[in-house]
């Protein structure tokens, strides 16, 4: 027993099942992103990526700010939606929970946010193909655009990590901040899933009274709300991403070069939109399989066989918690990919 919750260390925090399961969901959620980075690195020739970046595009003297204004508008929407979701989840995290467990969850969240942001920065500094196609290609044109050149002043390297991160464009703060905000929402959502999944699993192992069954039903339904909230954030992120990749079109002159750049931008938008959807899909199926496994185990218990009412309830909840009954939240996981596919018409 902890004598003082303030003495709770990072290592001790992982003694809680809520933290363990939340951490597992975070790690599973990283699989689609890591897979995207690896696939683009292995199957897209580096020489071809270098050629795409080195391509010179004819520029117009007076940029059209239309896409830029849409991009800024989408950024504002993304920030507002993500901030609201974070505040709601943070408040939900503190409901009906002991202070030591709350502290453990919050420290684990901060730890994983720091680790993921650190990995994001380190990976970006190594200039993999995904980084080159995602921003080096875009920056090469924007830094010479009259509309964006003022934002391409370098921030001194000693302010952003010395040799590891020798310089940072002022413009990078905006898209980088949006990415970090999305990562925060994803991590908090993972630990909220871990918190509620732990409650559900422990409840299934305990004596299932009528009030406990009602509470269990309500807690399982909250999983859908998490996916709706995360979907809203990732949809706004997909829209911002698509407009970000099109920012250079404000400067490139119409013609074959314009169409070529737009096609690559569409491909990268779809790539990230699909990655966002796959991330949500992984997060969606993890609690689904864990709950189904626990329900099957409870149904096999000998004492359940003699309690027909309990057996029927377990069967009903098992049937309710299947993919067909969760079609709406399942479809919501594909919204980021759908939005990315629609970007080709912009």
Task: Write structural notes for this entry.
This protein has helices at 10-13, 17-43, 46-54, 66-93, 99-125, 129-142, 173-205, 210-245, 256-299, 302-305, 308-320, 327-332, 335-342, and strands at 154-155, 168-169. The protein is mainly alpha-helical and 346 residues long. Strands 1-2 form a two-stranded antiparallel sheet. Helix 4 runs antiparallel to helix 8 (210-245), helix 7 (173-205) packs antiparallel against helix 8 (210-245) and helix 8 packs antiparallel against helix 9 (256-299). 31% of the residues are buried.
Specify the number of helices: 13
The rounded distance between the terminal residues' Cα atoms is 58 Å
* Global morphology: elongated
Which stretches are poorly predicted, pLDDT < 50 over at least 5 residues? 1-6, 158-166
Give the DSSP E fraction (strand runs of 2 or more residues).
under 5%
The description of the largest β-sheet is: 2 strands, antiparallel
User: Any idea what the radius of gyration is?
Assistant: 23 Å
Number of strands: 2
Rounded average pLDDT: 84
Strands in their spatial order, largest beta sheet = 1-2
Give the helix level as a range of percent: over 70%
The chain-level structural class is: mainly alpha
What count of domains describes the coordinates? 1
Q: What is the string of helix and strand elements?
A: HHHHHHEEHHHHHHH
